[in-house]
Amino acid sequence: MSAAPTVNQDGSFLRAQRLSRSVTLPCAFPWRAPERQPLLTDLSLALFPGERVGLVGRSGSGKTTLLRALLALDRPDAGQVTCQDRPVRPASVAALRWYRRAVQFIPQDPVSTLDPRRTVEALLMEPLQQLQVPCDHHERTRDTLEQVGLSTRFLRCRPGILSGGQAQRVAIARATAIRPAYLLADEPVSGLDLPLQVQVLDVLTRLSREMGMGLLLVTHDLSVVARTCERTLVMHQGELVEDQPTASLLQNPQHPCTAQLLDAAHPPALFQGLLTAP
Ligand SMILES: Nc1ncnc2c1ncn2[C@@H]1O[C@H](COP(=O)(O)OP(=O)(O)OP(=O)(O)O)[C@@H](O)[C@H]1O
């Protein structure tokens, strides 16, 4: 397990305060004033060290927009993101290196981000080199591959020969090799079949426990957070409408949109052993 990360004054690791962001919609009529569409409205949240938190909401509710603000990929119109008592906003690669070491990201369809020309070893070494992580990069690469349940014989392979589940594990290993204090994952299991979803979620949970790593898991599927997350946030039309321990949220949803998500949640496979450790 890594050393406890430095936190904000309020004990949180990552904090968003009153974030707002809107975009101007294209208008077909030049005589009309352009309309603004709010994407995030006065949104605040705090993520604590080692916590596994789900961020759910229907398609278009603003989850990815929030994630991009938390990752300093977009600048909000108002509000601030703070990590380790330092403001986080878009900046040069060098200026954000400290933050990229602390907070890593798994994008939607992470397998498509693996360069097919490179070996698994080169893919895992890349973030360690780019972020100048002070450790033996070969040793870290081997350890991380084993942590995600893959043999080191895969080091010499290229992504093309890996199965979907193996490639997904390599993508997770790329994000966790630097030992981030927090991992933000955008729909990391969408597009996988159910047994593979379970496998990948269990790898993420185990890594979070073993490394003391916090996890923000974005999904529209409540059964995914039921299996993985202790706390769940619900977004609706750019606002945070619920923030509850996952168990109480599932038993007693407060917002109509949470109830709708619950109705649409995946059939029982992922709910089996609900809220018990995988
Ligand atoms: N740059 C942009 N310009 C215009 N509209 C945008 C822009 N970025 C996002 N949107 C709109 O903002 C809303 C929120 O989008 P966002 O991708 O954050 O939702 P989401 O909850 O992640 O959806 P999904 O689950 O489908 O990925 C959507 O209506 C989207 O069309």
UniProtKB/TrEMBL annotation:
PROSITE patterns: ABC_TRANSPORTER_1, ABC_TRANSPORTER_2. Transmembrane segments: none annotated. InterPro entries: AAA+_ATPase, ABC_transp_ATP-bind, ABC_transporter-like_ATP-bd, ABC_transporter-like_CS, P-loop_NTPase. Signal peptide: none annotated. Residues 14-262 form the ABC transporter domain. Keywords: ATP-binding, Nucleotide-binding, Transport. CDD domains: ABC_NikE_OppD_transporters. Pfam families: ABC_tran. Coiled coil: none annotated. This is ABC transporter domain-containing protein.
